[in-house]
Amino acid sequence: MPRDIHPTAIVHPKAELAQDVSIGPYSVIGENVTIGDGCRIASAVLIDGETTLGKNNRIFHGAVIGTVCQDLKYRGERTCVRIGDGNTIREFATVNSATGEGESTIVGNAVLIMAYVHLGHNCVIGDNVVLANAVNLAGHVRVHDFASIGGLTPVHQFVEIGQHAFIGGGSRIPQDVPPFLKVAGNPARVYGLNTIGLARRGFTAEQRALLKRAYVILFRSGLNVTQALERIHAELPRTAEIAMFVDFIRNSERGILK
To answer: How far apart are CA 107 and CA 105, in angstroms?
Structure first.
């Protein structure tokens, strides 16, 4: 299928576009941009910098991708944005390039980025993530696969959100959120296991029960984190889920939400 580029769009002659790409009116595509098969770029979209889009991405009106980051330490070094396949980026979302020579801001596959979301420099977004309207991720935030963040939620720089975690809208996230948990509020609190989300994604009753036992030991036993991890190690089998839960907490640099 040939390219469908609106006559008012501005596409740099050195930009690399696959054949099956459409670009809407008044959009601007920069010199070092690569866009893969099946991508649909709507109107008034700006894609700039060293930006690569994989296949079958849909970018809605007014989104801005690949522009220079808002980091005061940035000194013009060469950085990039890498976006995978099958993502949806809604109206007026912004995805900044990274800071630090050769560094990247990364979006995985099948991610839904709703309107007015901001991805700061050096963010890494896994697969099947949902970022609801006006989520704001500061620099160096990492969001693991299948995590969901509700609208109007700011996330502090260097925070890590674990796999299958759910964060309610209007929360403020200053510390790491372990995988499989449900968090909400300002200040944010852990409210239990993301039971509904895990069930929808095929986790068995036995897997959920084991994760709930780990959650209770960590958050409801009165033990400190070190003691709780020791008890989990002693009492629970080291399944893949328990290993992920424990290793995330053990490796947390900012500390976890309580």
So the answer is: 7
Fold of the domain spanning 199-251: Udp N-acetylglucosamine O-acyltransferase; Domain 2 (1.20.1180)
Taking the model in full, what pTM does it have? 0.97
Give the separation between CA 69 and CA 72, rounded to whole angstroms. Answer: 9
Distance CA 72, CA 152 (A): 24
Element (H, E) at 195: helix 195-200
Q: How does pLDDT run across 218-227, given as a tens digit for each residue?
A: 999 999 999 9
Quick one: pLDDT band at residue 258, thresholds 50, 70, 90? confident
Where exactly are the structural domains of the chain?
4-143, 199-251
As given in the structure block, the two tokens for residue 175 are 């510390």
Read off the DSSP letter of residue 110.
S
Tell me the C-alpha distance between 130 and 116, whole Å: 13
Q: Which fold has domain 4-143?
A: UDP N-Acetylglucosamine Acyltransferase; domain 1 (2.160.10)
Side chain identity at residue 256, one-letter code: I
Percent helix, strand, coil in the chain, to 5, is: 15, 30, 55
